[in-house]
């Protein structure tokens, strides 16, 4: 029996309150930590799939390069391959001017989009931005005219832009935009439009992935033409027509400009190769898109003939009559490495410098390399982009390197913020962060983690799906009695071995595998559950289907290369030849007859040629990937 | 709520340990297969424990502020710490509900949001305003009351 002592009951009550508070606080912190772990998992998924795609493309391109170097002239595939490495047509500039002439393109009265007068003015470009905000499209005539002026201007620029920081005009530095017009508009809203009082540096990757790559380019080029001394554009690894074939920019242009798209793309190809490679502020701050390597030499970069590198993915051949007989010199290779390193490299925490196998190009460089390169070139800071960061920016290498990334919601709505840098003559960076949102609702942390996570898991399931035959064979190694069961531990290690994405499979397991019994799972059932598409064609051979799904992006890239007149059609013969070439690269055993049958069945119009879009559509996984 | 005696530390299954190791790796931002002392509490929480910060500091051997900021620990050293924390009482749904019932003055299943905010920011291991806002978003009704059983169900469903 407890006597009623007021002091005791007060004390008890106070203790209860504190215990209760502690309990809630502990619980809350656990909740946040678990969300953080899910967020990191999701991030890893997106990033590893993204980089695996880049690596895949470079491998494909290297493979064709290998073929180029080793094919004898008598080979029947020669024509096909030389498509892929089309000689840079050796034309005089005057001939190009004629080809790109916009004057014959008439702007009819029915056109309701924005008009541009030349030479462009600040007013004209601002009106253009307003028009883009209202989703209007610029007439092909004006596009070609604007791009033509841009090309002419860029040819007068050096490889490295030099900028002086000044008290009255702090410099704004932006990172990857990747076709996200809403982010560029947000930056202009927060920071003001470019002008002689408001200098800007845009650090590459303006295009691909987002839907408004062209509008971003036209805007940036417009301001460049008006303020050539105050707007500085650095080339990124996506300012590259081969990369554009895979990542959406080519498709965007052809979709928006069906008649003149091909010319526009060709002109852009030349503009990209003429974009400067770096910007230096006050001889102290180096800005490049990717980064550096232990051999980075600014003097060499300044001397390179940058327009030789239409696509950075392959060393340039010397101009010669026979494409296949030309040789690359050592100087060429050395220069090519300088350019690749600057466009494709990523920093790493450990000392040293190793090839960037994950992306397939450039290097991973360490803090010791940063110190050395900065010291050698008398610099104090390196600003680069190229990698998506959750907060829009990140320091590394003892704060000597900044990554700045300006495309918010890059992987998915709510995945990350974008940021830009403002810098005065003290060269101290100030960061402004933002997040574009098409809906005005603010997602709670938990909602945005959930949303992004769902999207990442979907992308991951697709990857698992396309590798299902390889996965099943690998699982069967651990299931000698063919029971259809495998331990979770073996599932995790095997899946990693097949997919090679470096993901935490055990942590992801509850989201990917519906049930386990005593640490064992039914892998056949699991693979069946992954099935996310019904084949649209009557093809009984699963291995063909799988191969098509797995190599979807590669096929798209190659077809678009072959389709030189951008008609959207390739012949049976070209299709067959392409397949023969790919066969050894993909190490697949699909026979010539099977391919011929396939070609017949996808000749939907029965006119002897294959419609690329229909073909790709037939093998597209029904659920949308994270990058659509 | 009396303090329960700690249960004897149970062994983790090998599969569990593999999973912990993966999670541990997710928090390594440096690439040396270690994590900072100041991350240890959060990793434990991510793995389903919910120690107080004080308990973690004690398990780390009461390091100085400097050590907390700079020292790192690898997985082999981390695992026994995790075991210790695993043995501590975690708190069930009922515990949380009871904990909130303390503030239920009218005994009607609700607590005043404002009162909860004050308590969480001034007592125990104080939460910041940002943390409290994040916790309470969407939980208070038009009278500023929180229906706590639903609240606990909601937060335990992560």
TrEMBL record, chain A:
Its EC number is 3.1.3.16. Keywords: Calcium, Hydrolase, Manganese, Metal-binding, Repeat. Residues 550-585, 590-625 form the EF-hand domain. InterPro entries: Calcineurin-like_PHP (IPR004843), EF-hand-dom_pair (IPR011992), EF_Hand_1_Ca_BS (IPR018247), EF_hand_dom (IPR002048), Metallo-depent_PP-like (IPR029052), PPP_dom (IPR013235), PPP_phosphatase (IPR051134), Ser/Thr-Pase_EF-hand_contain (IPR012008). Its cofactor is Mn(2+). It catalyses: O-phospho-L-seryl-[protein] + H2O = L-seryl-[protein] + phosphate; O-phospho-L-threonyl-[protein] + H2O = L-threonyl-[protein] + phosphate. It comes from the Eukaryota. The keyword Repeat applies. It is an enzyme of class 3 (hydrolase). This is Serine/threonine-protein phosphatase. It comes from Gymnodraco acuticeps (Antarctic dragonfish).
UniProtKB/TrEMBL annotation, chain B:
Residues 15-50, 91-126 form the EF-hand domain. CDD domains: EFh (cd00051). GO terms for cellular component: contractile muscle fiber; myosin II complex. Keywords: Motor protein, Muscle protein, Myosin, Repeat. GO terms for molecular function: calcium ion binding. The keyword Repeat applies. This is Myosin light chain 3, skeletal muscle isoform. The gene is LOC117539326.
